[in-house]
Amino acid sequence: MNILNKEDYIEQVSIDCVIFGFYERQLRVLLPKIKFLKNIWTLPGGFILQNESLGHAALRILAERTGIRDIYLEQFQVFGSLERSSPGLMRDVLNSHKGVFDELGLTSEDVKWLQRRFISIGYYALVDIHKVVPEISELDESCEWYDIKELPPLAFDHAEIVMKALDSLRLMLNHKLIGFNLLPETFTMKEVQDLYETVLDKPFRRNNFQKMILDLDILERMEKKFTGAANKAPYLYRFKNKAIEAGVSIN
Question: How far apart are CA 44 and CA 109, in angstroms?
Answer without folding.
Answer: 24
